[in-house]
Amino acid sequence: xxxxxxxxxxxPERIRQAMAVPTIHHRTPEFTKIFKETRRAxxxxxxxxxAVVLASTGTxxxxxxxxxxxxxxxxxxxxxxxxxxFVEIAxxxxxxxxxxxxxxxxxxKLDDIREAxxxxxxxxxxxxxxxxxxxxxRHPVEEAAALVKALNDEVVVVxxxxxxxxxxxxxxxxxxxxxxxxxxxxxxxPGLAMVGLSTFAISRLGEGRGYYFNLAKELRKQRxxxxxxxxxxxxxxxxxxxxxxxMEEVGLDELYDQTDRRATATRLALEAIGFQLYPxxxxxxxxxxxxxxxxxxxxxxxxxxxxxIAGGQGELKGKLLRxxxxxxxxPYEAVWVVNALxxxxxDLGRRSYDGTAVRIFSQSYYKLLGE
Length: 371
Ligand SMILES: *Cc1c(COP(=O)(O)O)cnc(C)c1O
Description:
By secondary structure, the protein is an alpha/beta fold. It has 2 domains: 11-249, 3-Layer(aba) Sandwich (Aspartate Aminotransferase, domain 2); 252-369, Aspartate Aminotransferase, domain 1 (Alpha-Beta Complex). Helix content is 44%, strand content 15%. A 7-stranded mixed sheet has the order 2-10-9-8-5-3-4, with helices on both faces. The chain binds pyridoxal-5'-phosphate. The site of pyridoxal-5'-phosphate has 11 residues, from helix 3.
């Protein structure tokens, strides 16, 4: 079965092999050496001043960023489940929230940010998804972050990059905390989260807040080559290997280019056979399609064609198809997915199969279109 859900993503054989080692103790010089190498690579990969690695899923890093970097009042963009999650975390910790709420296919409007910040001069932190995975939407995060800083440079900007880091180039100039998770573009098993930090964010951590997700304490320990609590040693070994593959062997420009070509080719192929893109501004991490037959199509893909793609969540349950583009994916796997979707349309009597999806994908991916 091809796993084409936008998280978790498949773990390549080489990364599985790298993790197939006996468990080592985390308070040892061997682990410190591995951890220091991993941190060095991670900080450069994230393009941030420093970073902490947490043994948790991405939501733990969202919680840690919020509890450590929001003082009293947060401005939060909510265009889907994950934006809503920031709102819920903030409320769970008694923070005041100014929420900018949109439909799940609609990106944040800069004028709304300006208005909210002018009306609420006591906002001290700003939270946004780079890609809101509920609808596959790309927010204009770089512009939003620059605007927030221009209006008040004391506001901490937190970007959830869980489906953007390792997917596309991100301009981190005005981002203070950049969140990543293991099971999306980093192609690792679930269980590890990362927060890249700017010098400004670090100055805001102070003595730290909270207990397990105390980022000041973690950062202090991690700068010494260890972690506050037992490190997720095996996942960290996997992370070191992934970063080596992505940064040294494939190269980040090549990774981003391949991902973009795969996303573009998939969209052209699927639009050509009548599918409708859902988000107004799609992120390269995934293709989200709005379709009334979404559940029937997903079932056919799984039972007849060996492909597992994701559906919609919350209010879009049963109405969306979400196809992953994150990670290193062979074009011959991606082309099978669009082919399976075309076959499913014939099964449903919506279109007679003629191989259009495969042809358009291949022409577009290999840039033959129009030549
Ligand atoms: C997957 C995801 C998360 C984190 O989810 P976990 O299940 O806690 O790992 C957060 N934000 C976005 C945008 C995501 O796609």
